[in-house]
Structure to design on (1674 residues):
């Protein structure tokens, strides 16, 4: 492949993906609203750009075959704060990709597009949207838009509903929802390398014993997660506070399911874990 | 009921609804981006306001119990032109309604939220979104948002997926998709008067012999359409140009299914019919 | 048909059914724990018997072809009070019917077997059990038992999930859930006269505009309800107290959905209506 | 429409359809293995031809827009006897239609394509095939072939699963399964006149109280049956012999469900009714 | 956890579970209608009690967090013999648990709640009840009751539909239905330790090649069976007597599917295996 | 088992199956339209016979318990060329098996019975037929016929929808669709040795990372594929030509999905691979 564009390249997950994506194409264009990091990969260029501005995003797509779209505000915020980066940003990426004839968008969707479904509802990728936050609603919007661009313009899209992506599982919920960096890399790589995909949705979750979904969907992509949060079970269960009335414990979206609309759903998690979590 | 707010009151359908809604409440506040019409109903007030501006919409909700949200650009346009009125406008209505403790939003959704489904797919209200245009995508966005406001904040919503609402059916497709003004009025009135609704979706289509859906959904609302486009069948079929390869003929969304994204889907219809159609 | 047995013959619905059932067979044996009423029909005999006692029920079945089983305590009570008449009583009827080679049990099941389903869940007869009370749980038990007797012993059963069966609709909920006496009679008569039925479940509800179910199921029985609660809409809606947080308003089971287990779910209804309601 | 071809024009149903189809096109070509009847309609020509012979069928299609394919042996027979007219005949019709660029095949499929489904299984047009005879298996074959010609070559097909089509209902089963000649005519006429259909399946049954299916499918065709076998209920039920262990009574296919493969399923019916029945 | 109550502690499976459950809580109260075994675990107390008597069961729950309810007559019997221990006993356990504020019931349900489903029906935990015996019907009753206690009173329940739980697989059927003691222990342990569960159903079957179900359900519990009956395949298949007309061979319930209601379904199995089997 | 008949014994897959099937029975009768190979297995006899001729096939079944029916033209051809071997041949096998009282037909069905389904449609064995060719249509015909023989005459059938069965995966599509010879052998052997099967359908595909189906169905057969095409991924992906508009790339049937009806679908594959592929 000649060229891949990666948005959100300075985020926790973007940082993980730069190296493997640089091996999938002759040229990797990394972009973020943040400034260029100290070192780049040999075939990588960095463009600081604001997703909310079409004029800054559009030129990046020239000559590319795919865009891996991971750029977004990664937390719940009031709708007006997410409108630019998460909603208009997604539109800008799809529209620019379409104008330049790209083949595919690989998109960081999120469990929060379906975060109000119950853990025991046996949800699969065909379950209807039940966003838990404005953050999740942006993922619903982009997924529906991606299906439309495929059906109307033939632009492929693979929407990866990422669960709890961190170096290690951070809490009892993550025993089910953890996505390891290794499995993330495999999932994105396969979404890129599969020759044709049409429009597809898949859950991004590791091979956890306690995964709340039985099947990640989109089998033809060939995703086979290898990691399992179970090694951390004893430690993390010891800290769990069972509460059957707490939405956060019985819904796929976890704390995003119980947080007030517009307020951060990561606060508690980050306080506990002290690290970066992306969902 | 004390007070109802009607948005889009100057549109073709808003104009139809003003009188019946004025009978459902002590006070009707009609709003539109257009100026006040010459005459108002006795208990009606008119406020010219831009849906895209929260500060203009928010004060209207004070003291209201329900908002009947029909305001929007009613045609396909480039996304940036729809972003304010159709996307942000819907957010403004729901957020303002929630802040003022309204009970319910009755929303003019559209068949175009599912417009790429085939006529013979036996679609019901549980079928997943397949928007045919940016116009339809805005309806998907608002429906998902409405479900979230219900689940997170207890604000009810009834989303009415209106098909082809005109005084008379305009073309062969409308033999199936017509919604008469009488049936529209019944549907909106019942959506308003039903004591509790939670979140619900229903198709707004008359009792047409050739309706592409077998069931309008949300039976507890008590919608029983009475009109049937069949009286116009002979005339309208005579003009039909069968073309099995034309998406416009085999998809629920009709011409919106085949039009290019961002280009008007009403052009052809209006040329043929010379009238107002709202979907 | 030679002989039909009717249990619960002294109840409100049993009283309605005696006359039409007496016309469907040469002999009608009516039974109840209550004493014989003043007058009987020409081909009717009355046997006072306790459903909870197999020895009292078993002999009634001799020579019968069908039993129409409407006998039960018709309200929520603590489980031990329902165990005899509603649980063991149902077993006694099926087992006695089977021992005497009857062809069919026509059973007064109830909406309360599925009473915790939401009004807008588009429930049909294939939805799983969600009993709202010990009263409803007894209906679940009998339905599962009826299926088993059919599959293991070839005893047919038609389980009629009766909604709100009263002379007139009593409250706003009944605008959707009313079953008129005329439609009850039609439903039971057709369940009796259909030549073969196997095991079947059907909803007993009139042709109400606001019915919370779109389809009563078991079409081969030929049930076509004729009455519609809509004539009472204006009066009854005027009394409605909308409350979206009240389970009684948004679940099929109405007040049984929100009442405490073991406490009467009819109290409020009867206070309002002053009459007999059976569900 | 310029030209319609009708196969099986000398059969009971073909005879009913000649007149209405002659009004739908400038030219009607009627064909059958039987000789020309005494009188033809003004715009009708008759060609005696063997469906099993491609060379006899192919030329008839020249210049036609649609073929209404009702020709077949209408009873169960050993497979080798049905192979020519019912299997190869269907292939010949579709292939010839495709070669001559026809728009659509309207096909007399049959309930016997799904005849082993139970009356109380709530079957709709999406239920999988369960043929009851070699006769029904031919209908499965043609339906699957029709879908393929649509998907691969764009030749439309409307497959009408005809139930018990006779002047009057003949027996207790027909209280549910009757299709009146009037409703047949409506169904075929609408299948012909609908501008575009793609591939569709619909049940051909009248508006009977006791219909074993709740919905005839393919609503966009606009089929609204008007007749109801219920007027014959008292007479026909009086003759019914209930037998819950007889497949003929509890399966959609009736006597075809219980007859041995290869043996006539119409024998008993015709003995009872003395008339023509087509399914 | 402070305290767990185990019913049926003297049964074959109860005996297996005592040790692992004693490690999950500070205190294990074991109860059975049988007398105390010779030796107890350090933190275990034994109470001889009759499940059918509320007064004997109720006091055991005081101060407990969970009850693992495995007590029952484990075979098919006439209904009156199962009524006390299996039906009333289940009610007593749930009601007592609810009165004392326990968090959860972990219940030994059984494949026999769905035992009349065919092996090739691809059954999952959402399939409706099809009990094969009065024994299985008691499991249906308790599952429906458990769902109701969760929905009405917030008492969690995990219903484990145990298949053929023995030290080794006993016959050809068990190549699919075996549940090893190790996997039983894992399943119960995870049902206990999962912080919140709501109401859930899962199949208790090992990781057998020939399992008649593809998925055990309730993934968030984290059950990952490790054993596989395939090691016994050659030996056990050699003894198999294929008979496609025998319900015992093609239904999930095996011999319980073909046994007469009220007669022992274990007789044949025990004669073959000479051991304890619990289902 | 006393005797097994294998049809298509000289084909690529028949050749693979002769040895394992010879171990499953005292006597193996291998038949093909081709002449006997040079060497036979000790308990094998060879009969040259034409599947299209009942008189040649019928005598082979005498005394057999099962027939493994793999004989057919293995490519797309005009319908008249497939009619004898693939359609009538299948009838001859089932009818002859039924007349001689065989227990079971194990049938080489094909992915091409459902070849027009999309890769990302999450197809399972309950998806309706969507044949891609006359070759696939013959498989639909035989599957429907097999179900009917089971339901009407009690002749069991296991229909194995074989994907791409070759010694090694031949192209990028086969990374998902490959069926190794080892897994084929396991699948057929288990279909033969399972004591009772009724009518069942299963997908024949190896344990490939990129399998377009998530589940092969018919779990009670105990099929556990062991091979995985992923070892060939790097080599085969390098040759892939992504084209989202090419049906061959996004449908289960691959090149059969895009080939013209009646024209060979194997041509391209064989040109690339130079080997035998059977689907």
């Amino acid at each position: 492949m000649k060229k891949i564009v990666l948005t959100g390249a300075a985020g926790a997950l973007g940082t993980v993906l730069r190296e493997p994506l640089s091996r999938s194409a002759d040229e990797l264009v990394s972009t973020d609203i943040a400034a260029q990091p100290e070192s780049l990969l040999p075939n990588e260029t960095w463009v600081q750009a604001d997703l909310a501005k079409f004029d800054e995003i559009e030129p990046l797509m020239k000559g590319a075959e795919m865009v891996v779209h991971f750029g977004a505000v990664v937390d719940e915020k009031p709708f007006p704060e997410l409108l630019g980066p998460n909603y208009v940003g997604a539109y800008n990426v799809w529209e620019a990709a379409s104008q330049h004839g790209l083949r595919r968008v690989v998109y960081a969707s999120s469990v929060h597009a379906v975060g109000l479904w119950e853990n025991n509802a046996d949800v699969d990728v065909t379950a209807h949207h039940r966003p838990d936050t404005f953050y999740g609603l942006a993922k619903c919007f982009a997924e529906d838009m991606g299906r439309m661009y495929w059906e109307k313009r033939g632009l492929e899209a693979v929407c990866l509903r990422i669960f709890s992506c961190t170096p290690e599982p951070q809490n009892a919920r993550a025993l089910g929802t953890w996505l390891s960096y290794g499995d993330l890399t495999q999932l994105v790589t396969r979404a890129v390398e599969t020759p044709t995909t049409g429009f597809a949705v898949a859950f991004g979750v590791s091979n956890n014993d306690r995964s709340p979904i039985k099947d990640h969907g989109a089998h033809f992509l060939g995703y086979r997660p290898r990691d399992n949060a179970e090694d951390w079970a004893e430690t993390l269960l010891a800290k769990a506070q069972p509460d059957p009335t707490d939405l956060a414990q019985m819904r796929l979206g976890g704390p995003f399911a119980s947080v007030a609309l517009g307020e951060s759903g990561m606060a508690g998690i980050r306080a506990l874990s002290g690290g970066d979590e992306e969902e």
User: Anything to note?
Assistant: The longest helix of chain C spans residues 79-99. The mean pLDDT of chain C is 94. The radius of gyration of chain C is 18 Å.
